Amino acid sequence: MSGLAGASEDELVPRAWLTRAATIPDHIRVARYRRAPELGPRILFFSGGTALREASQALTDYTHNSYHLITPFDSGGSSAALRRAFGMISVGDLRNRLLALADRNVRGHPDIYRLFAHRFPATARQEDLREQLDRMVRGDHPLVDAVPNPMRRIITNHLSFFVELAPRDFDLRGASIGNLILTGGYFNQGRDIDAVTFTFSKLVEARGLVRPVVDADLHLRAELVDGRVVLGQHQLTGKETAPITSPVLTLGLARAGDPDSPVDVSIDSGTRRFIAQAELICFPIGSFYTSLVACLLPVGIGDAVAEAGCPKVYVPNCGVDPEQIGLPPAEAVERLLAYLRRSGAADAPIDRLLHFVIVDSKHGDYVGGLDMARIRKLGVEVIDVSLVTPESRGALDARHLVQALLSLV
Fold it and tell me: Helix, strand or coil for residue 81?
């Protein structure tokens, strides 16, 4: 069953040409993946941690082999406190995606999931939170005590590293325990982010591979149309500060406290290998600049995408994205291509960078209008299929989106 209730047959079978004629959704292909997700395809996503959470959860029913390259430039929430104290990348979006991919049944150690998803109260006294953390390190806190060994020993070891290294005045209010464990593990493993995410993924039985697109302690730097320069992801999202009132002219990277000095950073062999091995590359929904474009900024991303011999798909946001002032989907496609070219694919033809844009013109609300003719004029095919359901309330339905992507592999 596809789960596409209420859609007519005509809505369900738009066709796009790869090396085969693809029916979307391809019920036979999707059912085959559902029967053996351990053999599912390697779909790669460039994204942040939250907008793709539901789609990542749905994806685990069809493949345990997805790849997730995550932005490490978050500067808000509890990640900001960790970055200020330790001078490191943001781990919050990594934790978020690993938990979204976690196996939550008995084999997946639900007690570990509950511990990693736990946050300290934002209104509690520091002394009380410090005592709770000390109890976790000793292993006699209920959340830690519920975790069986040897996993409990790994967790308490990472937490003890965090406690030893953290400033005594580190603010624990609202802190994510999963973030603290990842941070302790990061230093316990000699600042090897792959080692700690591998351990974390094994603890929660993550059904997919997750890594930051780069391991670099940098921040997003946006030049706005009105001439202002904004430093920090949290200044752009409209979540912790007022939304920006001027469109983003260009996005880049800078060091903390130094917005006047843009810097470049290159991807490593691990990120390049992820991209080369993908069977489909997806530029998905999410905050356009701070989640998607942020992942495309490191040098080497563009040429790695161009060299990957697989379909490449962009899924525009449905509804309002505070970062996309005056940026309708067709122009977002053009910006996406521009950033890929800027990060190493300057001479690549469009058909090496992007093949498809997936939309739902009938049910979706695309700010500024879709202008599918403008997209097609670039040489990019528009796949118009049912993605929005009454249950999804104007947003893209996670399972519909996943099934559409699986049909293109």
Answer: helix
Kindly provide the residue ranges of all beta strands, DSSP E only, lying in 316-380, ordered along the sequence: 356-359
Claim to verify: residue 51 and residue 102 sit in the same structural domain: no
Residues in the chain: 409
* Residue 350 confidence (pLDDT): 96
Q: What are the pLDDT digits (tens) for 208-262?
A: 999 999 999 999 999 999 999 999 999 998 888 889 999 999 999 999 888 888 9
Which residues of the chain register pLDDT less than 70? 1-21, 106-108
Does residue 271 belong to any structural domain of this protein? yes
Q: Has residue 47 been placed in a domain?
A: yes
Query: So what's the pLDDT on residue 15?
Result: 45
Q: Is residue 258 part of a domain?
A: no
Q: Output the pLDDT for position 119.
A: 95
| Residues 81, 67 share a domain | no
**Judgement on whether residues 14 and 92 belong to the same structural domain of the protein:** no
Question: Domain range for residue 188?
Answer: 77-212
SS3 call for 109: coil
Phi, psi at 112, each rounded to 5° = -70, -40
Q: Which pLDDT tens digit goes with each residue over 134-144?
A: 999 999 999 99
Is 132 part of a structural domain of the chain? yes
Residues 189 and 272 in one domain: no
| Cα 93–chain centre separation | 7
**174 and 203 belong to one structural domain:** yes
d(CA 408, CA 47): 19
- What are the distances in angstroms from CA 286 to CA 40, 233, 360, 403? 24, 13, 16, 18
Q: How far apart are CA 398 and CA 337, in angstroms?
A: 25
pLDDT for 259: 87
Residue 25: cis peptide before it, omega within 30 degrees of 0: yes
> 294 CB contacts (<8 Å, ≥6 apart)?
48, 71, 73, 220, 233, 251
Euclidean distance between CA atoms 360 and 382, whole angstroms: 10
